[in-house]
Write a structure and sequence with these properties.
Number of helices of chain A: 14
Largest interface: A-B, 49 and 43 residues
Helix content of chain B: over 70%
Shape of chain A: globular
Distance between the termini of chain A: 15 Å
Largest sheet of chain B: none
Helix content of chain A: over 70%
Distance between the termini of chain B: 42 Å
CATH architecture of one domain in chain A: Orthogonal Bundle
CATH topology of one domain in chain A: MetI-like fold
CATH class of chain B: Mainly Alpha
Shape of chain B: flat
CATH topology of chain B: MetI-like fold
CATH superfamily of chain B: MetI-like
Number of domains of chain B: 1
Order of helices and strands of chain B: HHHHHHHHHHHHHHH
Strand order of the largest sheet of chain A: 1-2
Strand content of chain A: under 5%
Structural class of chain A: mainly alpha
Number of strands of chain B: 0
Number of helices of chain B: 15
Oligomer: heterodimer
CATH superfamily of one domain in chain A: MetI-like
CATH architecture of chain B: Orthogonal Bundle
Structural class of chain B: mainly alpha
Chain lengths: 343, 312
């Protein structure tokens, strides 16, 4: 019973957070100075009539919200109008239908554009997360077990340096090294103009393009996992039950696997889920360096083109993902450690 | 016997002073090798920043065409390492606009340190006020403030900074403001947490009973408790702020050329990595060393200030 009310409470706050995000996201991009049509399309030859047509097309002819025509320049308007005729509620209504507006740049629906970009980012983040979880946890475990030895010291140095590396710089350096010495592709998702004999060959080409971005993201992300795993395992190893396990004559491997790893995984699960935001930020930089056609590159290009519907959609998508990741972290934690619900 | 047992008031005073929280913390910091190394690096960086005009052989934005016989993106030329003496010395080579990269890297220290300290200073200032109000008064005010900060935290910091800069327009000061805003929630939470833990302590109640005003209780009795965690978080935060600022500049949203900012230098020469790798290599190393210094200090301070951790 207690568990359900705990879960419901968490879910309630997640929903409220998402509503906040929607509002923030909408108004943030409406505070922008200037006329989006003129700024976004930047074609001086456009006649006034054509500009007006574009404004109607993107819904910019309507007031932003009751009492306000536009936010920048701040222009007040009639308050007693049907709220459903204002930009905000039209946006909200479209969101309910799963529509995120039309991109100023490509004229295509933002939702379908984001879907393709999202898949590429998930691919990159997914691979990098798997590698960094496995490598980070193993290295952290070994470092804690071999505490105060060269192995431990090396792990610590590696994680501190990895933590301090500018992601985009590591990407460029690996790009240089990988393409010069290993002949790996310099960017993109597939080799341009390549003819593939079959699906397998195409898949291999995709993997070749994924190697360098994945290594970059893995190095950046795994440093933190290593450090947290190491300190958690150190704490666990000082517990009495580890002494008992040793006294029982269990092997080192058994102690580490059944006692240390299990108990140390508890905080790790939350860290990994909470880390999603950080991973996405890393992905933005890596995607720009490697021209990987994911959300990060899309955001970078949309900023340059002032494609606000696209930015709005991408930010909403990422914020909602992070909120869900946090929710999942809470749920997992309460499942793994029943004490949490009481507290 | 009685002489030995009698308490020497002076001695007690001395022991008390020697074992005060700050002294003990300082002593523990002295034992943290990481923190010491970090502080030495930071000290050197601060010196480099202050002495930049003395250390830099060239003006960081001076274009050397017509001044010297050098071309653009020339490889490093160091006289000690066998570069002919009749050629002008450029320890880190020249960039695409024929400027001395070494001088630019030296001046870049100023921008990164300034950005890191100011952005986190803003964040701590605003965050501390919000966190203190939130924790001290509680109720609906607490709920609204924390909810808004939670929403800010739902955005990855770099992403939110990109959003804010795209609203404010690119530039060094806007990047600074953006990174400051993005960092607020962390410090608000730290202050709120420590306010909540000491709010109900006896000495705070005593202060209230003595008729202390809210301001007096908050500033003199409660907030000093949040200083140690703020220092630790702040030091680590400066590292992250410098990284984020460099990333913003790299993406063309932060400092604008010809400013000798490390991220900007990297961003403008990134496509030349194959023909002139030195242009990408040095600014990146500079960023890494600076961030590493703050991370080492922060890591060591955390262990020194939180005695629970130092036992393990």
């Amino acid at each position: 019973m207690q568990r359900w009310s705990f879960l419901l409470n968490k879910l309630k706050w997640a929903v409220i957070s998402i509503l906040f995000v929607i509002v923030l996201n909408f108004f943030l991009f409406r505070i922008l100075p200037g006329d989006p049509v003129r700024a976004g399309i930047r074609d001086p030859r456009l006649t006034a009539a054509a500009q007006e047509a574009l404004r109607v097309k993107y819904g910019l002819d309507k007031p932003v919200i009751n009492c306000f025509e536009t936010l920048n320049p701040l222009r007040t308007g009639p308050c007693l109008i049907n709220p459903l005729e204002t930009q905000f509620f039209i946006y909200a209504g479209n969101l309910l239908k799963g529509e995120l507006g039309i991109s100023y740049h490509t004229n295509r629906p933002v939702a379908s554009m984001l879907a393709t970009y999202l898949w590429n980012t998930v691919l990159l983040i997914g691979f990098a997360e798997i590698f960094s979880i496995v490598l980070g946890i193993t290295a952290g475990l070994v470092a804690a077990w071999k505490s105060r030895t060269a192995v431990d010291f090396g792990t610590l140095i590696f994680s501190l340096v990895a933590w301090s590396l500018p992601t985009f710089w590591l990407g460029i350096v690996l790009l240089f090294a990988g393409s010069t010495w290993l002949g790996l592709p310099v960017g993109g998702k597939f080799t341009i103009g390549q003819f593939y004999a079959g699906g397998g060959e195409k898949f291999l080409d995709l993997l070749r393009h994924l190697i360098l971005p994945t290594i970059t993201l893995t190095v950046v992300v795994m440093g933190e996992y290593m450090m947290i795993m190491r300190s958690t395992v150190l704490e666990v190893l000082s517990e009495d039950y580890i002494l008992t396990a040793k006294a029982k004559g269990l092997s080192t491997f058994q102690i580490l696997k059944d006692h240390a790893l299990r108990n140390a995984m508890l905080p790790m699960v939350t860290i990994i889920a909470l880390n999603l935001g950080f991973t996405v930020a890393g992905a933005i930089q890596i995607e720009t360096v490697f021209s990987w056609p994911g959300l990060g590159l899309a955001i970078f290009e949309a900023v340059g083109r002032r494609d606000y519907p696209m930015l709005q959609g991408a930010f909403l998508l990422i914020a909602v993902s992070v909120i869900f990741a946090n929710l999942i972290a809470d749920l997992l934690y309460s499942y793994l450690d029943p004490r949490v619900q009481v507290g | 016997m009685t002489a030995q047992l009698s308490v020497n008031a002076n001695q007690v005073e001395k022991d008390y002073r020697a074992n005060s929280l700050w002294r003990m913390t300082l002593r523990r910091i002295g034992k943290q090798r990481n923190a010491i190394i970090g502080m030495v690096i930071l000290g050197i960086l601060l010196l480099v920043a202050i002495l930049a005009p003395v250390l830099a052989p060239y003006d960081p934005i001076e274009v050397l065409i017509g001044v010297e016989d050098v071309g653009k993106r020339e490889a490093p030329c160091i006289h000690l390492l066998g570069c002919p003496a009749d050629q002008p010395q450029h320890i880190m080579g020249t960039d695409g606009n024929v400027r001395d990269v070494f001088s630019r890297v030296i001046y870049g220290t100023r921008y990164s340190l300034f950005l890191g300290f100011t952005a986190i200073g803003i964040a701590i200032g605003v965050g501390a006020v919000l966190g203190a109000i939130s924790g001290y008064y509680g109720g609906w005010l607490d709920m609204i403030i924390m909810r808004i900060l939670d929403v800010l935290m739902a955005f990855p910091s770099l992403l939110l900074a990109i959003a804010i800069v795209s609203v404010l327009g690119p530039g060094l000061s806007n990047a600074l403001v953006a990174i400051g805003i993005v960092s607020i929630p962390v410090y608000a939470r730290v202050v709120r947490a420590s306010v909540l833990t000491v709010k109900e302590q006896e000495y705070v109640k005593a202060s209230k009973a003595l008729g202390g005003s809210h301001m007096h209780i908050l500033i003199d009795r409660i907030l000093p408790n949040s200083v140690p965690p703020l220092i630790v978080r702040g030091t680590l935060g400066i590292g992250t702020a410098i990284l984020d600022a460099a990333a913003l500049s790299f993406l063309g949203l932060g400092a604008q050329p010809p400013m000798p900012e490390w991220g900007t230098m990297l961003g403008s020469e990134r496509n030349q990595v194959f023909s002139a790798p030195h242009l990408v290599f040095y600014p990146g190393i500079a960023i890494m060393i600076t961030v590493l210094a703050f991370n080492l200090i922060g890591d060591g301070l955390r262990d020194a200030i939180d005695p629970r951790l130092s036992n393990t």
